[in-house]
Amino acid sequence: MSSRERVLGRVRRALADVPRDDTPYERAVARDYLGEHGERTVEQTVDLLAENLADYRAIVHRTDAGGLAGVVAGLLRERGSSSVLVPPGLDEGWLAATGVTRVADRAESTPHELDRVDSVITACAVAIAETGTLVLDGSPDQGRRRITLVPDHHICVVRVPDQVVSSVPQALERLDPARPLTWISGPSATSDIELDRVEGVHGPRTLEVVLVG
Amino acid sequence: MSGTFVGMPAFPEAAREAVHDQTLRGNLRHATHTIRAKRRTAVAEVSDWAELREAGKRIKDHTLRHLDRYLVQLEESVTAAGGTVHWAADAGEANRIVTRLVKETGESEVVKVKSMATQEIGLNEALEEEGIRAYETDLAELIVQLGKDRPSHILVPAIHRNRGEIREIFAREMSEWGRPAPEGLTDTPAELAEAARLHLREKFLRAKVGVSGANFMVAETGTLVVVESEGNGRMCLTLPETLISVVGIEKIVPTWRDLEVFLQTLPRSSTAERMNPYTSTWTGTTDEDGPRNFHLVLLDNGRTDTLADEVGRQALRCIRCSACLNVCPVYERAGGHAYGSVYPGPIGAILSPQLRGTASEIDASLPYASSLCGACYEVCPVAIDIPEVLVHLRERVVQGGQVTREGNKVVLRPAKGHAAERAAMRAARWAFTRPGALRTGQRLASRTRRFHPRTLPGPGRAWTGTRDLPPVPAEPFRDWWHRTHGGKDETK
User: Fold this and answer.
1) Which structural domain, as residue segments, surrounds residue B475?
2) Minimal Cα distance from A139: which residue of B?
3) If you ran DSSP here, which 8-state letter would residue B193 be given?
4) Is there a contact between A127 and A163 (Cβ–Cβ < 8 Å)?
5) Burial (Cβ within 10 Å: 0-12, 13-18, ≥19) of residue B177
6) Partners of B279 in the β-ladder
7) CA–CA dist B304, A8 (Å, integer)
8) Which among B154, B146, B153, B192 is positioned nearest to B172, based on CA atoms?
9) Which structural domain range is residue A171 located in?
10) Which of B110, B265, B292, B455 could bond B381 through an S-S bridge, CB–CB 3.0 to 4.6 Å?
11) What is the CATH number of the domain that holds B148?
12) Looking at the domain assignment, is residue A30 inside a domain?
């Protein structure tokens, strides 16, 4: 007997006492919880996103489409970055005002090569206001998962209000599970020393979020 | 379970040592009290906590009830997405599978994301025997590994260490494993985190094989979810060419939508955050992004035996948040090591004796490692009635009876060492079924009360070692009731 059959057989025997129940799953679990917490206008939702991002030590900037290139150039300059990782589908206009070296997100790059790049700039798939979370789904303007992981400085551009949802349930509805997702809530952190939160371990230690709208 | 826990003394002995360790007591008190207050705030932020908790409970119960169906569905969807599924009935089999998979890559080292399942099966030790070095990359796991220590908490395995001790371990041990700790390392948490970052980075960048567990597996889509803080998880899940995930079969949820419940309750319950810094989800393999080979090892190792117990099976709802540890008065004083398992605290006291059986001294003693105060049940985000299961397991230990071990029904013999308790219960049953004898006995007890000892002799000594014997009243209740006409003539 294979282990597969053995484990499945054990499961079936273990459940022998349970009466048969063919209720379809949609009706088997009552979902009395809320779709979102509180009532907010679109603007208030964007404000809440900014507030919660900042609460977990992300640095939040707000601008409009016309000001974006200037803001991005300023962030790279202040950081002293000489190179920036760029996903293939990123809007070229975002980097129009900076001269730093662009490094393409390529399959062949080794992790060591990525480690030598100063910053990375990406878009996102969706942002969650209630939790201060950015979700990246590997679309062409976000690139491979590793590019937002190895460099120490991540600039993430969020189009507001279109990309902003209130809650976790609303975010999951918008996301495609077949894509590899990375949910980011503030810079890398740990609670492992005396259960106290400290920012900055393995992921980017500086997360800058530019809300564009 | 991990070899390092074999031969552990029973809980009371192990705890006795721990409660006299002042540093340990201080470290635990500080950490658990910090997180307790934060968790309360994080939970109070969501007005529908009770509903989320109820939904989480029902999702898990439904999944367990149809576990065979969802396991098969998960296998299909993971396979369709490019992954390979393996089944392991026990720890030994899981270790053999992982060892073989690592050897097939030709590598002799792996980087690991913190995972309870791989600790439970003692994977690191098994790999070591085969000449494969496993590097723990979670900060707390790193502290435990470098300190040749054992984990003492589900979420923060090094909770028993304070910053000064961590500094010591880093300064002394890091050079043995790779990049040494920076010169002049101080004990500020930020510097310690920086030291870990530098030490592990070279390992991440060269790693070809990653080993992980998972917090959730979605049956309908084949998606796995890892919830973490530091980014070490993302490193292990995306940089290596091969990813091997060892996951307990109870970690399944039926649908993608179900994550909306647990991604709200888990971070708030465990680290008391609205959301943890990083959550990764992946479905099989993705072209040119992340590992090219993905293996999922589905682990039983006592879970189906637990499932067979009508009362005890609710322990399989656990999402390993560790909120129950942080509120437990026993855990706070005894520390995690006394539980003799990678699963300490209240959840460990009901999980370990079910996963491993109650044959060993430590496992038979765990259901008693509780005052039954119920704080664990109150904070549990999937509403596991831990006190109920504790009492159920106590009954099993004392009375024996039918249980399932490795898929087979066996009859447990009543535990030894409860002879005095059983004799006392038999005597009580005899007296309570004979009103005349009971009355005589009670009167006799009242009249002789001046001569009663404060502690019991012989086998009763253990019981009165930590308690006073209740004083016998001057008059039995029934005599008082009779004399005062049910309390109406109280002044008499």
Assistant:
1) 419-483
2) B289
3) H
4) yes
5) middle
6) A183, B227
7) 9
8) B146
9) 41-212
10) B265
11) 3.40.50.10420
12) no
Angle, CA B111 vertex, CA B108 and CA B115 arms, to 5°: 125
Low-confidence ranges of chain B (pLDDT < 50): 1-4
The answer to whether position B284 is within a domain reads yes
Answer whether A150's CB lies under 8 Å from B234's CB.
no
| DSSP state at residue A174 | H
**Residue A195: pLDDT above 80?**
no
Six-digit token pair at A95?
A: 């980097």
Give residues with Cβ within 8 angstroms of B150, minimum separation 6.
Answer: B2, B4, B5, B144, B337
A132 touches B at CB < 8 Å:
yes
Asked if the structure places residue B85 within a domain, the reply is yes
Instruction: State the CB neighbour count (10 A cutoff) for residue A98.
Output: 19
Per-residue pLDDT for A205 more than 50? yes
Contact A60, A53 (CB under 8 A): yes
Which residue, among A120, A91, A90, A89, has the nearest Cα to A103 in the 3D structure?
A: A120
Last residue of a domain, one of B245, B271, B299: B299
Whether B187 maps to a domain, the answer reads: yes
What's the mean per-residue pLDDT of chain A? 95
Asked if the Cβ–Cβ distance from B35 to A195 is below 8 Å, we say yes
Residue A142 tokens read as 């976000």
B465 at the A interface (CB within 8 A)?
Answer: no
Give the residue from B299, B322, B357 where a domain finishes: B299
Domains in chain A: how many in total? Answer: 1
Span A16-24, mean pLDDT? Answer: 86
Asked if A1 has any chain B CB less than 8 Å from its own CB, the reply is: no
Contact B234 A2 (CB under 8 A): no
pTM for the whole structure: 0.93
| Residue B217 placed within a domain | yes
B22-44 and B259-270 are packed helices; what angle lies between their axes, rounded to 10 degrees?
Answer: 140
> In A, which residues are within 8 Å of B313 by CB distance?
14
Q: Are residues B424 and B295 in the same domain?
A: no
- Model pLDDT for residues B120-157, shown as the tens digit of each residue: 999 999 999 999 999 999 999 999 999 999 999 999 89
Q: Chain B 161-220, CB below 8 Å of chain A: which residues?
A: 162-163, 166, 189-190, 192-194, 196-197, 200-201, 204-206, 218
Instruction: Tokens for B436, please give them.
Output: 């005349």
Query: Which residue matches tokens 């004799």?
Result: B423
The encoded tokens of residue B77 equal 């969807």
In this structure, what CATH number is given to the domain that contains residue A160? 3.40.50.10420
Number of domains in chain B: 2
Residue A35 falls inside a structural domain: no
Interval A22-37 mean pLDDT: 91
In contact, B404 and B305? CB cutoff 8 Å: yes
B84 interfaces chain A, CB cutoff of 8 Å: no
Q: Which of A7, A195, A203 sits opposite B31 (nearest CB)?
A: A195
Phi-psi map region of B95: left, alpha, beta (phi>0 left; psi -120 to 50 alpha): alpha
Overall average pLDDT of the A27-39 stretch: 93
A20 touches chain B (CB under 8 A): no
Q: Is residue A106 part of a domain?
A: yes
